[in-house]
Write a structure and sequence with these properties.
4 strands, 165 residues, 5 helices, Alpha-Beta Plaits, Arc Repressor Mutant, subunit A
């Protein structure tokens, strides 16, 4: 019987240091990264490319300041579905993936909801329009519970690499 377990990428101490620096400062040039890690530029670039090819590095992004762009309100939305069928879930996931306001979407258990969304939006008025004209119009949405973020205590994209041996 074939195993369906995905083989994890082999990450050594140097690769881990590369990943730590790139998570915190994704805009580093290869030369800057090489200096921080203690490698010359060519071996550093080869390691980064290998990490990309192995699927460890998915992409490099630029993080923007929400407030500077007028996106003042973050909302956590719990969504209940009317039916628990693969077709209903697939349609919901497709529709919600088309909404740029949705930063994260999770299918969850242990709640009185099926999905948990993190939404970033300019204001309460904009959220009201978003909720009524977009979320509640998705077929199958039977319940919505909104919680409004007062303050971000931890807001990180950095993964805990200390578990990698």
């Amino acid at each position: 019987m074939a195993s369906k377990t995905k083989k994890l990428a082999k990450i050594d101490k140097t690769d881990r240091r590369i990943l730590e620096f790139l998570q915190k400062e994704g805009g580093l040039s290869n030369q800057e990264l090489a200096e921080k890690v203690g490698l010359s530029a060519s071996p550093c670039l080869r390691r980064v490319k290998a990490l990309e090819e192995a699927g460890v590095i998915l992409s490099r992004v630029t993080l923007l300041d929400r407030k500077q762009l007028g996106l003042e309100l973050t909302v956590i939305i719990l969504i209940g579905m009317d039916r628990h069928t693969p077709e209903r879930f697939e349609e919901f996931e497709q529709r919600v993936s088309e909404l740029p306001e949705v930063q994260e979407c999770y299918l969850v258990t242990g709640q009185d909801a099926d999905y948990m969304l993190k939404v970033v939006i300019p204001s309460m008025d904009a959220y009201h329009v978003f909720l009524l004209n977009k979320i509640t119009r998705i077929p199958g949405v039977s319940g919505v519970h909104s919680s409004f973020v007062l303050r971000r205590v931890i807001d990180s994209t950095v993964l805990p690499l200390s578990y990698i041996e």
